[in-house]
């Protein structure tokens, strides 16, 4: 079940992975609400999840899915009473290495929020690039992730102050976390006020 964590919590960057729900059956299994896009990896037997304060570690002993829901059993959780005691706990996992993720063109939503959005050079519209379009204020998850861009004052209208941009390489060709910007290559009509 729980093990002491010896890592310095100040040095860990944690991401919320799941919230434990109700007990499932009599053998210590629990249902979980998943917050990760890598459940097969995060819930694999032998993987470790942490409490928010990193004081306790939970090692996955077994995992399975049933009707689009994950069911886990943790080491040391042997019966329904043990499982019910975990109801409502949120568990966290370590963030992956940011340099490796950047090499693989992968980012966490929290890393994208706050980036300046610039028009790419060249672009589909054939207009001069490097123009500031706005700032990323949210990343909306779904079958296709969307960047919510708060438009620069020069582009915003009374009706449209934000734009949603599908987060795909064709439309967002460059993400530079170090310089705190990304570029957008929008087709006509995607960014209001951009001609």
Compose a concise summary of this entry:
This protein is mainly beta and 195 residues long. Helices cover 10% and strands 39% of the residues. A hairpin with a 4-residue loop joins strand 12 and strand 13.
Write structural notes for this entry.
It contains 4 helices and 13 strands. The model is unreliable at 1-12 (pLDDT under 50). The protein is mainly β and 195 residues long. The chain has helices at 39-42, 80-84, 98-103, 109-112; strands at 2-4, 14-24, 29-34, 48-50, 56-66, 69-74, 90-94, 116-119, 132-140, 146-151, 162-166, 174-176, 181-184. It has 2 domains: 2-95, Elongation Factor Tu (Ef-tu), domain 3 (Beta Barrel), CATH 2.40.30.60; 109-184, PRC-barrel domain (SH3 type barrels), CATH 2.30.30. The strands form 2 sheets. Strands 1, 2, 3, 4, 5, 6 and 7 form a 7-stranded antiparallel beta sheet that branches.
Order of helices and strands: EEEHEEEHEHHEEEEEE
Rg, nearest Å: 21 Å
Output mean pLDDT: 85
What is the level-2 CATH architecture name of the largest domain?
Answer: Beta Barrel
> Helix segment count?
4
Helix content: under 10%
Which spans have pLDDT < 50 for at least 5 consecutive residues? 1-12
Task: Find the count of extended strands (DSSP E, 2+ residues).
Answer: 13
| Strand content range | 35-45%
Query: Structural class of the helices, strands and pairings?
Result: mainly beta
> What is the assigned CATH homologous superfamily of the largest domain?
RimM
Biggest sheet features: 7 strands, antiparallel
**What CATH first level of the largest domain would be assigned?**
Mainly Beta
């Amino acid at each position: 079940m729980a093990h002491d964590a010896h890592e310095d919590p100040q040095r860990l960057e944690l991401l919320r992975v799941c919230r434990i729900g109700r007990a499932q059956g009599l053998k210590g299994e629990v249902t979980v609400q998943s917050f990760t896009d890598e459940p097969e990896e995060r819930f694999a037997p032998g993987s470790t999840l942490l409490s928010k304060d990193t004081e306790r570690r939970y090692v996955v002993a077994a995992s399975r899915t049933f009707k689009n829901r994950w069911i886990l059993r943790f080491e040391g959780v042997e019966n329904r009473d043990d499982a019910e005691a975990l109801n409502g706990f949120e568990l966290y996992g370590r963030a992956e290495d940011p340099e490796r993720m950047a090499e693989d063109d992968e980012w966490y939503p929290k890393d994208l929020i706050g980036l300046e959005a610039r028009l790419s050079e060249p672009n589909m519209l054939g207009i001069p690039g490097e123009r500031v379009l706005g700032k990323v204020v949210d990343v909306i998850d779904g079958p296709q992730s969307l960047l919510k861009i708060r438009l620069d004052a020069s582009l915003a209208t009374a009706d449209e102050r934000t734009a949603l941009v599908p987060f795909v390489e064709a439309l967002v060709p460059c993400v530079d976390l170090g310089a705190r910007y990304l570029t957008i290559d929008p087709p006509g009509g995607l960014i209001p006020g951009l001609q």
